[in-house]
Specification:
With 282 residues, the protein is of the alpha/beta class. The chain has one domain: Alpha-Beta Barrel (TIM Barrel). It contains 13 helices and 10 strands. Helix 4 crosses helix 5 and helix 7 runs parallel beside helix 12. The two termini are 26 Å apart.
Length: 282
Amino acid sequence: MALGELGTFGVWTTYRGIGEENAGEAAALVAELGFGTFWLGGSPRLSSVRPLLEASDSLAVATGIVNVWAYQPADLAREYADLSPQFGDRLLVGIGIGHPEATSDYTRPLASTRAFLDGLDAAPDPIPADHRALAALGPKMLDMCRERSRGTLTYFVSPEHTRAARAQLGDGSLIATELACVLDTDEESARATARRYAELYLGLGNYTRNLVRHGFSDDDVAHGGSDRLIDTVVPHGTAEEIAAAARAHLEAGADPVCLQPVGVRGIPRSEWTALASALRLG
Protein backbone atom coordinates (compact mmCIF):
# COMPACT_ATOMS: atom_id res chain seq x y z
CA MET A 1 0.00 0.00 0.00
CA ALA A 2 1.62 3.24 -1.18
CA LEU A 3 1.97 6.13 1.23
CA GLY A 4 0.09 9.16 -0.02
CA GLU A 5 1.11 12.78 -0.05
CA LEU A 6 2.21 14.41 3.20
CA GLY A 7 1.49 17.94 2.05
CA THR A 8 3.80 20.94 2.03
CA PHE A 9 2.99 21.95 5.61
CA GLY A 10 2.03 19.97 8.69
CA VAL A 11 1.70 20.52 12.40
CA TRP A 12 3.92 19.04 15.10
CA THR A 13 2.70 18.48 18.64
CA THR A 14 2.66 15.95 21.47
CA TYR A 15 0.00 14.34 23.60
CA ARG A 16 1.67 15.96 26.61
CA GLY A 17 0.86 19.28 25.00
CA ILE A 18 -2.67 18.75 23.73
CA GLY A 19 -3.89 15.90 25.94
CA GLU A 20 -4.31 12.43 24.47
CA GLU A 21 -8.04 12.61 25.16
CA ASN A 22 -8.20 15.50 22.65
CA ALA A 23 -6.44 13.61 19.84
CA GLY A 24 -9.45 13.24 17.57
CA GLU A 25 -10.57 16.83 18.01
CA ALA A 26 -7.08 18.13 17.28
CA ALA A 27 -6.63 15.97 14.17
CA ALA A 28 -10.03 16.94 12.78
CA LEU A 29 -9.13 20.63 13.16
CA VAL A 30 -5.74 20.15 11.49
CA ALA A 31 -7.39 18.40 8.53
CA GLU A 32 -10.11 21.08 8.28
CA LEU A 33 -7.48 23.84 8.18
CA GLY A 34 -5.71 22.19 5.25
CA PHE A 35 -2.48 20.92 6.79
CA GLY A 36 -1.23 17.71 5.19
CA THR A 37 0.25 15.80 8.12
CA PHE A 38 -0.16 15.56 11.86
CA TRP A 39 3.28 14.85 13.37
CA LEU A 40 3.06 13.34 16.84
CA GLY A 41 6.23 13.87 18.88
CA GLY A 42 7.17 12.92 22.40
CA SER A 43 8.29 9.32 21.71
CA PRO A 44 4.75 7.92 21.38
CA ARG A 45 3.72 4.31 21.05
CA LEU A 46 2.72 3.74 17.45
CA SER A 47 -0.63 2.28 18.52
CA SER A 48 -1.53 5.63 20.11
CA VAL A 49 -1.93 7.34 16.72
CA ARG A 50 -5.17 5.46 15.92
CA PRO A 51 -7.53 8.26 17.08
CA LEU A 52 -5.60 10.74 14.92
CA LEU A 53 -6.08 8.54 11.87
CA GLU A 54 -9.73 7.88 12.67
CA ALA A 55 -10.54 11.59 12.87
CA SER A 56 -10.08 12.22 9.14
CA ASP A 57 -10.15 10.38 5.84
CA SER A 58 -7.39 12.51 4.33
CA LEU A 59 -4.90 13.56 7.01
CA ALA A 60 -1.54 11.76 7.06
CA VAL A 61 -0.14 10.93 10.50
CA ALA A 62 3.54 10.49 11.37
CA THR A 63 5.44 9.75 14.54
CA GLY A 64 8.31 11.98 15.45
CA ILE A 65 9.71 9.71 16.79
CA VAL A 66 9.15 6.22 18.16
CA ASN A 67 12.30 5.53 20.15
CA VAL A 68 14.34 2.41 19.34
CA TRP A 69 15.19 1.96 23.03
CA ALA A 70 11.48 1.69 23.88
CA TYR A 71 10.72 -1.07 21.37
CA GLN A 72 11.69 -4.46 20.13
CA PRO A 73 11.58 -4.29 16.31
CA ALA A 74 9.05 -7.12 16.12
CA ASP A 75 6.70 -5.26 18.48
CA LEU A 76 6.83 -2.09 16.39
CA ALA A 77 6.24 -4.11 13.22
CA ARG A 78 3.26 -5.78 14.89
CA GLU A 79 1.73 -2.44 15.88
CA TYR A 80 2.20 -1.19 12.32
CA ALA A 81 0.56 -4.35 10.96
CA ASP A 82 -2.47 -3.68 13.18
CA LEU A 83 -2.90 -0.21 11.67
CA SER A 84 -1.76 -0.64 8.08
CA PRO A 85 -4.76 -2.52 6.58
CA GLN A 86 -7.01 0.43 7.35
CA PHE A 87 -4.60 3.37 7.48
CA GLY A 88 -1.37 2.33 5.75
CA ASP A 89 -1.72 4.87 2.96
CA ARG A 90 -1.73 7.67 5.59
CA LEU A 91 0.76 6.40 8.18
CA LEU A 92 4.48 7.19 8.29
CA VAL A 93 6.54 5.66 11.09
CA GLY A 94 9.22 8.08 12.23
CA ILE A 95 11.98 6.23 14.09
CA GLY A 96 14.83 7.66 16.14
CA ILE A 97 17.70 6.78 18.44
CA GLY A 98 17.08 9.54 20.99
CA HIS A 99 19.82 11.27 22.97
CA PRO A 100 22.64 9.93 25.13
CA GLU A 101 21.67 12.37 27.89
CA ALA A 102 18.15 10.92 28.01
CA THR A 103 18.73 7.18 27.52
CA SER A 104 20.88 5.18 29.91
CA ASP A 105 21.28 2.35 27.38
CA TYR A 106 22.33 4.70 24.58
CA THR A 107 25.30 3.33 22.66
CA ARG A 108 26.62 3.14 19.10
CA PRO A 109 23.78 5.12 17.47
CA LEU A 110 24.53 4.13 13.86
CA ALA A 111 25.00 0.45 14.61
CA SER A 112 22.00 0.35 16.93
CA THR A 113 19.76 2.04 14.36
CA ARG A 114 20.97 -0.30 11.63
CA ALA A 115 20.32 -3.34 13.82
CA PHE A 116 16.83 -2.06 14.64
CA LEU A 117 16.02 -1.64 10.94
CA ASP A 118 17.37 -5.11 10.27
CA GLY A 119 14.97 -6.38 12.91
CA LEU A 120 12.06 -4.58 11.28
CA ASP A 121 12.94 -6.06 7.90
CA ALA A 122 13.10 -9.55 9.41
CA ALA A 123 9.66 -9.28 11.03
CA PRO A 124 6.81 -11.39 9.64
CA ASP A 125 5.08 -8.16 8.52
CA PRO A 126 7.90 -5.66 8.02
CA ILE A 127 7.34 -1.93 7.83
CA PRO A 128 8.08 -1.02 4.19
CA ALA A 129 11.07 1.27 3.76
CA ASP A 130 8.92 3.94 2.12
CA HIS A 131 6.59 3.97 5.13
CA ARG A 132 9.32 4.81 7.62
CA ALA A 133 11.67 7.74 8.12
CA LEU A 134 14.59 8.29 10.46
CA ALA A 135 15.44 11.17 12.75
CA ALA A 136 18.82 12.41 11.59
CA LEU A 137 21.12 15.39 11.91
CA GLY A 138 24.66 14.26 11.06
CA PRO A 139 25.99 13.05 7.69
CA LYS A 140 26.30 9.35 8.54
CA MET A 141 22.76 9.05 9.85
CA LEU A 142 21.49 11.00 6.84
CA ASP A 143 23.16 8.43 4.59
CA MET A 144 21.23 5.70 6.40
CA CYS A 145 17.99 7.62 5.88
CA ARG A 146 18.54 7.59 2.15
CA GLU A 147 19.52 3.92 2.08
CA ARG A 148 16.96 2.43 4.47
CA SER A 149 13.90 4.71 4.56
CA ARG A 150 11.82 7.34 2.82
CA GLY A 151 13.97 10.09 4.27
CA THR A 152 14.65 12.09 7.40
CA LEU A 153 12.89 13.94 10.17
CA THR A 154 14.90 16.92 11.38
CA TYR A 155 14.30 18.88 14.56
CA PHE A 156 15.64 22.12 16.05
CA VAL A 157 17.55 23.03 12.92
CA SER A 158 18.31 26.09 10.81
CA PRO A 159 17.63 26.52 7.08
CA GLU A 160 21.38 26.03 6.60
CA HIS A 161 21.07 22.51 7.95
CA THR A 162 18.07 21.88 5.72
CA ARG A 163 20.08 23.03 2.70
CA ALA A 164 23.00 20.76 3.59
CA ALA A 165 20.69 17.79 4.19
CA ARG A 166 19.04 18.27 0.79
CA ALA A 167 22.42 18.51 -0.91
CA GLN A 168 23.43 15.22 0.69
CA LEU A 169 20.19 13.31 0.18
CA GLY A 170 19.34 14.52 -3.30
CA ASP A 171 15.90 15.09 -4.73
CA GLY A 172 14.36 11.70 -4.06
CA SER A 173 14.30 11.68 -0.26
CA LEU A 174 11.89 13.15 2.25
CA ILE A 175 13.14 15.95 4.49
CA ALA A 176 10.44 16.69 7.06
CA THR A 177 11.62 19.64 9.10
CA GLU A 178 10.10 20.61 12.44
CA LEU A 179 9.87 24.35 13.01
CA ALA A 180 9.06 25.53 16.51
CA CYS A 181 7.62 29.03 16.58
CA VAL A 182 6.13 31.65 18.89
CA LEU A 183 3.16 33.66 17.68
CA ASP A 184 3.87 36.80 19.68
CA THR A 185 4.87 40.21 18.35
CA ASP A 186 6.41 41.36 21.64
CA GLU A 187 10.09 40.64 21.07
CA GLU A 188 11.03 40.33 24.73
CA SER A 189 8.23 37.97 25.75
CA ALA A 190 8.49 35.96 22.52
CA ARG A 191 12.19 35.33 22.98
CA ALA A 192 11.61 34.38 26.61
CA THR A 193 9.05 31.78 25.48
CA ALA A 194 11.41 30.52 22.79
CA ARG A 195 14.28 30.20 25.27
CA ARG A 196 12.16 28.19 27.69
CA TYR A 197 11.41 25.77 24.88
CA ALA A 198 15.01 25.74 23.61
CA GLU A 199 16.60 25.14 27.00
CA LEU A 200 16.25 21.35 26.78
CA TYR A 201 17.72 21.11 23.29
CA LEU A 202 20.61 23.45 24.02
CA GLY A 203 21.59 20.99 26.75
CA LEU A 204 21.80 18.05 24.31
CA GLY A 205 25.10 17.56 22.54
CA ASN A 206 23.76 16.24 19.25
CA TYR A 207 21.74 19.42 18.74
CA THR A 208 24.44 21.86 19.80
CA ARG A 209 27.10 20.12 17.69
CA ASN A 210 24.79 20.26 14.72
CA LEU A 211 24.13 23.97 15.19
CA VAL A 212 27.85 24.67 15.35
CA ARG A 213 28.38 22.62 12.16
CA HIS A 214 25.88 24.83 10.38
CA GLY A 215 26.73 28.43 10.99
CA PHE A 216 26.62 29.06 14.73
CA SER A 217 29.46 29.48 17.21
CA ASP A 218 30.03 27.98 20.63
CA ASP A 219 29.04 31.37 22.05
CA ASP A 220 25.75 31.24 20.14
CA VAL A 221 24.71 27.98 21.79
CA ALA A 222 25.86 28.96 25.30
CA HIS A 223 23.89 30.72 28.05
CA GLY A 224 20.42 30.05 26.68
CA GLY A 225 21.28 30.79 23.07
CA SER A 226 22.13 34.04 21.34
CA ASP A 227 19.32 36.17 19.93
CA ARG A 228 20.49 35.21 16.42
CA LEU A 229 20.25 31.49 17.17
CA ILE A 230 16.91 31.73 18.94
CA ASP A 231 15.36 33.89 16.23
CA THR A 232 16.55 31.46 13.53
CA VAL A 233 15.61 28.15 15.11
CA VAL A 234 12.47 29.30 17.00
CA PRO A 235 11.18 32.27 15.01
CA HIS A 236 8.60 34.61 16.50
CA GLY A 237 6.25 37.29 15.32
CA THR A 238 3.03 37.42 13.34
CA ALA A 239 1.65 34.38 11.56
CA GLU A 240 2.86 35.92 8.30
CA GLU A 241 6.40 36.24 9.69
CA ILE A 242 6.33 32.62 10.85
CA ALA A 243 5.06 31.59 7.42
CA ALA A 244 8.05 33.35 5.83
CA ALA A 245 10.41 31.42 8.14
CA ALA A 246 8.69 28.17 7.13
CA ARG A 247 9.07 29.02 3.46
CA ALA A 248 12.79 29.62 4.04
CA HIS A 249 13.07 25.94 4.99
CA LEU A 250 11.07 24.99 1.90
CA GLU A 251 13.39 27.01 -0.30
CA ALA A 252 16.35 25.29 1.36
CA GLY A 253 14.96 21.87 0.47
CA ALA A 254 12.51 20.79 3.18
CA ASP A 255 9.26 19.13 2.19
CA PRO A 256 7.19 19.21 4.32
CA VAL A 257 7.73 21.78 7.08
CA CYS A 258 6.03 20.85 10.36
CA LEU A 259 5.03 23.83 12.49
CA GLN A 260 5.03 23.61 16.27
CA PRO A 261 3.66 26.64 18.13
CA VAL A 262 5.26 26.61 21.57
CA GLY A 263 4.30 28.26 24.82
CA VAL A 264 0.67 27.19 24.33
CA ARG A 265 -1.47 25.08 26.68
CA GLY A 266 -3.85 22.58 25.14
CA ILE A 267 -4.81 22.48 21.47
CA PRO A 268 -3.29 25.56 19.79
CA ARG A 269 -6.46 26.33 17.86
CA SER A 270 -5.89 30.02 17.28
CA GLU A 271 -2.21 29.50 16.37
CA TRP A 272 -2.93 26.69 13.90
CA THR A 273 -5.76 28.71 12.38
CA ALA A 274 -3.62 31.83 11.97
CA LEU A 275 -0.76 29.83 10.45
CA ALA A 276 -3.06 28.05 8.02
CA SER A 277 -4.38 31.42 6.86
CA ALA A 278 -0.89 32.91 6.50
CA LEU A 279 0.27 29.83 4.57
CA ARG A 280 -2.86 30.04 2.36
CA LEU A 281 -3.96 26.50 3.10
CA GLY A 282 -7.41 25.08 2.53
